Amino acid sequence: MSESREAIFSRIRGALQPLHDRAPYPEYPDNVATLAGAGAAADLWTAFKVRTQLVNGLAFDNVAALVDWLREKKHLRGYCDPALWAEIGGSFGDDFHVERVFDRSQIDTYQFGITHAAGALAETGSVILKDATTASRLAALAPWVHIAVLKREQIFPDVAAAVRSLGSDPNVIWCTGPSKTADVEGILIQGVHGPGVQITVLA
Amino acid sequence: MKYQQIDQYAAKISQEKRAAVYDGSKSGYDSRLKALFTQYQNPDDLRRLAGRIKQHTIENLDTYLPQVEARMQANGVKVHWATDGEAACREVLAIMQARQARKIVKAKTMVSEEIELTPFLEKNGMECLETDLGEFIVQIGHDHPSHIVKPIIHKNRREIATLFEKNGLGDYNDEPEVITRRARQYLRQKYLEADIGLTGANFVSAESGRIVLVTNEGNSRFCLAATKVHIALIGIEKILPRDRDLAVFLNLLARSGTGQQLTVYTEFIQGPRSAAQPDGPEEMHVIFVDNGRTDVLASDCREILRCIRCGACLNVCPVYRQASGHAYRSVYPGPVGAVLSPLLAGKKFPELADLPKASSLCGACNEVCPVNIPIPDLLLRLRDRGKQEGSEAAAAGMPPMGGYAILASQPAAWKTALALGGIANHVPTPLLPQAAKTWVETRGLPPWRGGKFRAWMKNHRKTS
Prior knowledge:
Strand order of the largest sheet of chain A: 1-12-7-4-2-3
CATH architecture of chain A: 3-Layer(aba) Sandwich
Shape of chain B: globular
CATH class of the largest domain in chain B: Alpha Beta
Oligomer: heterodimer
Radius of gyration of chain A: 21 Å
Strand content of chain A: 15-25%
Order of helices and strands of chain A: HHEHEHEEEEEEHEEEE
Strand content of chain B: 5-15%
Number of domains of chain A: 1
Strand order of the largest sheet of chain B: 1-10-7-4-2-3
Largest sheet of chain A: 6 strands, parallel
Distance between the termini of chain A: 51 Å
CATH topology of chain A: Rossmann fold
Helix content of chain A: 10-25%
CATH superfamily of the largest domain in chain B: NagB/RpiA/CoA transferase-like
Number of strands of chain B: 10
CATH class of chain A: Alpha Beta
CATH superfamily of chain A: NagB/RpiA/CoA transferase-like
Shape of chain A: globular
Radius of gyration of chain B: 25 Å
Distance between the termini of chain B: 48 Å
Structural class of chain B: alpha/beta
């Protein structure tokens, strides 16, 4: 293995050795690729809602509105992060069957999965999930509906700001709307491997 | 010879497939234009900036690669190095054997196509399943991808429905939604049974050792939620110096590739899962793959290593649209492939030396490139190299240019030839010299107007 490493490095050195002036790292402002006005919104939650709807995501202002929607769609079986359930479980009625342990041998029995959002991105309408605060990667992915529970103060204005705050978590994922494909004749289909419905709810 | 070589390969591809590629690539181009030019005042400045960042990176790989290796190791990642495709395949196999693993689920990675990983693993008794819908369809159809971003751009729904029926994935049904649901049902069991999730990487930050993966379907996330071991196969050119560069490149990649602001899933991976997380890899391996890249770095075409595989140059290219991906006979088709494929081919360069000629040098590929690669210049350099190396494919259809070289280097001879050239208007084709004959085989010869410019210039000087 170290032989391969040495071979590759010696070839790289050989290839770069004739270059006298190597291209410098260009200076640029952090917001160079930020959409005009993305950071200027006074209310980041409203800005986020507009953006997430553009990518076919749903956003609810409170848990009661979410519960109404779930009931209307007859999504009554699901999973919820146990810590979150202590906070929001009271808003769900007896007609719901919500488990607090995600059983990977039964992934198709969960209609929805509720987990913590570690943040959100107003510029793109993305929710941010981190390993440290996501109770189960599978529970946020396998059910048809994923619900991310967000606090208002966790919203970043833009991509550059969210990159600056990646932190030291080993796994951070931004989810921008439901899972989708256009592989078959360019026709958009939602819900390929991940959720067909991506919901963010403020709580 | 009547056409370019690529036309002969394209002629073997069915009209139906070529029409599908034409439509698919055109719509990809339209959505990209909309995303970039309605959202940014000056997207060209952004492309140039990204190009400079990448150029800086590849010219300093001797600094950044050791840096990224050290960061990854500090993050708990095992780093491996592979000089060529075979070595990379063997590294994957060795990791599997050490874990007594038998099954891999794989998210889309172009490097794995390049090193022919799946056939290698299957020969060694392993299972390696594609999970990207398009790549999955390619795999069960024993086909090859024909586009970097849209692997089955050449297939229509009827073909796919027939394939699914043949492979026991339900009765014939060509509704895209039904096809997608069946793949969803089938593949989620496969993720859960698999031992290892294998991915590529879109970007790697040298500063933090993070790798970034983008997908729309969520398949790479499923690979990394269901399996216990993560292997990432990464070309050595995928580095970016700093985390902040990721913001620039993520914004450009999705817009250039699919016309999205961001892809649905953007995953930043810095190591094995955290202690409290029940799902995902407890072990992470990165295999850095050379496989010809250091040769490209040593060549005068090193700019091609800036490429971030967005596919924009394929979508815009009139030759790609007409010829379709398979006519390029290599993993990377289109303008980027016409440069990269012969370069990565090593000793097989002569076999692909016709590809740099599969271009009218119109420059559209350079204009759309998110990292501003001067593809037409690189194509010219490769044409030159093909000729210098005496490759047959590079010379096919080219008239001998010796006579022209003499004329062009001696002003007196040039002047005489201009004066006498008018005779050519009256010479019947069979009597033309070989060079001119090759030309008129496929196109008409314009009437001789030699010397007009010189005369104009002379008068122009007098009057001004």
